Amino acid sequence: HQDILYHIIENPKNSKILKNYKNISIEKFLFAIFPFRGFYKFYDVEEPLIYTLRGIEIAHEIEKKFHFKIIKNKNDFKSGNIILSIEGLYFVRTIYEIRTIYRLGIRSLGLVWNKDNLICSYWNSKNDYGLTDLGHDVISEAIKLNLAIDLAHCSDKTFFDVLSQFKTNIFVSHTGIRELKNIKRNLSEDMIYEISKVNGIVGIAFGDIFLSNLKLKDIVKYISKLIEKFPKTMCIGSDFFGVSKENQIKNLSEPKHLKNLYKLLKNYLSEELIENFFYKNAYEFFKKIFV
What we know:
alpha/beta; TIM Barrel; about 290 residues
């Protein structure tokens, strides 16, 4: 999960960052489309819809300009690079919006961001109502279309409401760990276990807002234990370009720094477990989305 599309919408010159991606051995990206710009009109349909559509259009421009490929079906999966995701369904009022964005190439739905919506409540909600009836209908329709359902930013009640009603296509794109930093935005190890039971994946985000202000080597030591505990569940969530500079982890703030993480993980894990974390778990999860 990364937020480069938001920065390109804010300033088209930021697209130059993508040139570096060609020099990094990263096969696939989850590109999040953030449905706001400037003042966040959370309960206004027009602004989030406009910026969602603009984000989709930018993604298609990137596909042509930088010779990436948006993955839409199983034929695209092997050679494609970009999986398009929405980070917050603030424009959704019926299941028809889900059908429309599916036709435009969206294959992953982040239900909510940092504000409640008509689908569900978010992690710091003052009125944690969980998954709504509309949210249930939206997820049901999304799973019929074989979209991935992303529980990042969800409240605990939303998280458990979803898992009590749905057992497939569920993942968390980017999160920290409460045992490292005890905030409600993060998952606990018990919550990771619940995701593992439905064959989902959990992406670790890189930022001290997620993982505390420990040194990188200490963070890696803890992550290694998580990977050993959940060898088929943990993966890279990154949140590159979505973490403010003051909250970035030194030497782990952009894609080229993943080599630093790899070197440190080799001190604790087998090559097989590192491969699962870096690539295989996410690959196998999304491969099912594009069957």
